[in-house]
Amino acid sequence: MDTQPPEEARLSDPGAEKHGIAVIESLAGRQARTLKHGDSFLLADAAGTIRPGSADGFYHLDTRHLSRLDLRLNGYRPILLSSTMRDDNAALICDLTNPELAGREATPLHSDNLHIRRTQFLWEATLYERMRIRNFGNQEARIRLELRFEADFADIFEVRGTARCQRGNYRPVEVAASRVTCRYLGRDGRERTTEMRFDPAPDEIASDGAVFEFTLAPGEAQILFIQVEANGTGERPGAGPEAFRTAMRSARRALRRSASRAAAIETSNDIFNEAIRRSVADLYMLSTDTPHGPYPYAGVPWFSAPFGRDALITAFQMLWLDPELARGVLRFLAANQATGDDPASDAEPGKILHEVRRSEMAETGEVPFRRYYGSIDSTPLFVMLAGAYLERTGDTGTIREIWPNVRAALRWMEERGDRDGDGFIEYLRMTEAGLANQGWKDSHDSIFHADGRSAEGPIALAEVQGYAYAARRAAAAIATALGHAEEAERQEREAEALRDRFEREFWCDEIATYALALDGEKRPCRVRASNAGHALWTGIASPERAACVARTLLSADSFSGWGVRTIAAREARYNPMSYHNGSVWPHDNALIALGLARYGFKVEAARIFEALFQASVYIELRRLPELFCGFARLRSQGPTFYPVACIPQAWAAAAPIAMIQACLGLTFDVAGNQVALEEPMLPPFLDQIMLRNIRLGRGSLDIVVRRAGSGVTTSALRREGDLRLLVTC
User: Fold this and answer.
1) 664 contacts 689 by C-beta, under 8 angstroms
2) Are 653 and 275 in contact (CB under 8 A)?
3) CA dihedral of residues 124, 330, 591, 268 (deg, nearest 10)
4) What is the pLDDT of residue 14?
5) Looking at per-residue confidence, does 10 or 92 come out higher?
6) How far apart are CA 115 and CA 97, in angstroms?
7) What is the pLDDT of residues 246-259, one digit of tens each?
8) Secondary structure element (H or E) that encloses residue 704, with its range
9) How far is residue 107 from each of residues 190, 216, 414, measured CA to CA in Å?
10) 445-455 burial string, b = 16+ CB within 10 Å, else e?
């Protein structure tokens, strides 16, 4: 359609996007490097430098504990040779050399005579670095190596662009022979510290820098060790080789332990093998061990924190590969479920968490996200995942433990979630400080009518009704397993009633798909959007209309060649460079692919899979970002990057894992002790997929699927226990 929004709809609302991310620089354009462990992360440039005046930093608990770490060699920046992440994401390794310094020094130092290798990693709220400088020249080299550093203790929301009227107080910097300690007393009454330690002790040290002077004979090397600890007790021993080796060993072992839970994926395509290994490594790097189990933080740098929706969808995508992640997500969210009313945090009894932040601005209420519940979809997704986890594992013990939380979530869906009693779940923020839109497309301008006017709430999103339908069916399965037959029957009835209402109210013949949403007057937002693909994923769509939705999603307006756009190209607010109005999100596409496969559209699912794989070919480390721009694919050109997309992002990293399941039709039957492949097929870029160590109960399988003419062959290569493989064609 050629409809354009009225002028007033196109004008920006200066107060509408209070919590958005200001686009100041492109993270993709400058090849940003990221590390994460626990509640800490590092954002640096390709040389391992933390640049002042940028988003770079060493962050812990949403506070930037190091805002500058800048290296100078005889007064000049070293030249970058290469920069890479270890395959397991345990460390960043940067290789540097010296510029031409002959004529600038008493002793000539020609270019490329010095090799500097920086190895950086995170472990237990500490940034570790080993710097090795070796002289490959044939003359003695006199070195003055200077490190400039600063700790601004900026809140992550400040870095994202939120203005502050007041800040806390910086305490005097403490300088010792081999240590510098910076302190900041926040407005929340908490003191935050950054302690830098050096080995050997610098020749010069000050509150903002350290200098090392040494002479290297030809072939000689010097090694320096640096530690940056956030909020330490001051009792940890100083930096040095033993501390570095011990921490590195612990970091690598922790990643190996986590990854050992997962099934392994190996294919005939070496590039895809690189991509899937990086995806799995990213997911375990992003996962944080909590008292309730592993929990995937959403993404680095902006969302390195517990998010409800993101973790739930990531756990869904990972469920066939590693169900322990889903268990950790369910138990964490159950423990943090809202039990009372709090308008400031959009909390109501039974609601599932949206976000947890522990920064100064969150603690003082400058932003509402200390413990925030402004998500309309986390609650039904929680119930959905509980049912899917039970189906995948048969773990009634965990499900029995969280059954009271499931029931509380269902009560919220039936009562507070349905604000007007029409059987749909709607959202409307309780205060102006909260998020205006509370689905996964939570930009202030993402929910609108065909003419571009913003939809006024309460808003019922299409995909949320699908989540509610699937949640009720999941609740019925859980209730049956736990012996609550009447509750199971009630949930099945409610699910079917919701499905009927959804078909009546959301279907739009004129756009051949489901409406994006219903506004507060129950008028449909007749916009072709990717949200309808989630209706396929959840099974709420009728088979006849599912075919129409599939055609619409794969049409030229919706499918960019790199994936399905969030909205179609001729919709009123289409902007391929926007966050939610025309961009391509890998996780969104993965759920659409699962939905297409559910209704038998495997070829279409494989088309999406291939598009995202081809996009990854153009991306460093083969990492799929949070999103990329929705411009149409052009021959011999890669996708256009979104400037502040998180990379890695958990649900983007998990997208290829979900699409493997979609194409293979991989399902599990605990009672029958059976793994099934339903009408398996391979996307065009793969001739073979091998899945190793797929676990169910006490058994495990290795499965191989090979292309054979126009179809595939399957076989079980290894079997432990009496686990069976069933293939249906």
Assistant:
1) yes
2) no
3) 60
4) 35
5) 92
6) 5
7) 999 999 999 999 99
8) strand 699-708
9) 50, 12, 79
10) bbbbbbebbbb
> Residue 255, CB half-sphere, CA atoms under 13 Å: how many?
26
* Domain edge (last residue) among 255, 279, 308: 255
If one counts the domains in the chain, the total is: 3
DSSP one-letter string for 53-95: TSS-EEEETTEEEESEEEEEETTBPPEEEEEEE-TTSS-EEEE
Q: Are 19 and 367 in contact (CB under 8 A)?
A: yes
- Inside any domain, residue 22: no
Whole-angstrom Cα distance, residue 497 to residue 245?
A: 61
Q: Are 160 and 22 in contact (CB under 8 A)?
A: yes
Q: Please indicate, yes or no, whether residues 638 and 706 belong to a single structural domain of this protein.
A: no
Helix (H) or strand (E) holding 178: none
Nearest alpha-carbon partner for 120 in 223, 27, 227, 195: 227
For 300-338, what is the HEC assignment?
CCCECCCEHHHHHHHHHHHCCCCHHHHHHHHHHHHHCCC
* Burial label, 236 (beta-carbon count in 10 A; 0-12, 13-18, 19+): middle
How far apart are alpha carbons 479 and 491 in whole angstroms? Answer: 9
Statement: residue 433 has pLDDT above 80: yes
180 pairs with which residues across the strands? 175, 196
User: In 3D, which of 375, 328, 368 has the Cα closest to residue 350?
Assistant: 375
User: Of 401, 360, 398, 353, which is closest to residue 377 (Cα–Cα)?
Assistant: 353
Which of these three, 255, 289, 324, is where a domain ends? 255
- DSSP symbol at 578: S
Instruction: Classify burial at 545, counting beta carbons within 10 Å of its beta carbon; exposed 0-12, middle 13-18, buried 19 or more.
Output: buried
> What are the distances in angstroms from CA 4 to CA 11, 242, 701?
13, 64, 55
Q: Is the peptide bond before 458 cis (omega within 30 degrees of 0)?
A: yes
**How far is CA 594 from its chain centroid?**
19
Query: Amino acid identity of 228?
Result: V
Under 8 Å between Cβ of 409 and 337:
yes
Residue recorded with tokens 């991306």: 619
**Residue 713, strand partner residues:** 706
- Domain containing residue 681: 676-728
CA-to-CA dists, residue 560 to 271, 352, 577, 639, angstroms: 22, 34, 13, 10
**Is the confidence at residue 26, as pLDDT, over 60?**
yes
Residues 75 and 162 in one domain: yes
Burial of 651 (0-12, 13-18, 19+ CB in 10 A): buried
Q: How far is CA 125 from CA 195, 251, 477, in A?
A: 11, 12, 42
Q: Are residues 592 and 610 in the same domain?
A: yes
Tokens at 203, concatenated: 């020749």
Same domain? 418 vs 511:
yes
Q: Tell whether 409 and 351 lie within a shared domain.
A: yes
pLDDT value for 17? 56
For the packed helices 602-617 and 270-286, what is the interaxial angle rounded to 10 degrees? Answer: 80
**Do 218 and 279 reside in the same domain of the chain?**
no
295 and 216, same structural domain?
no
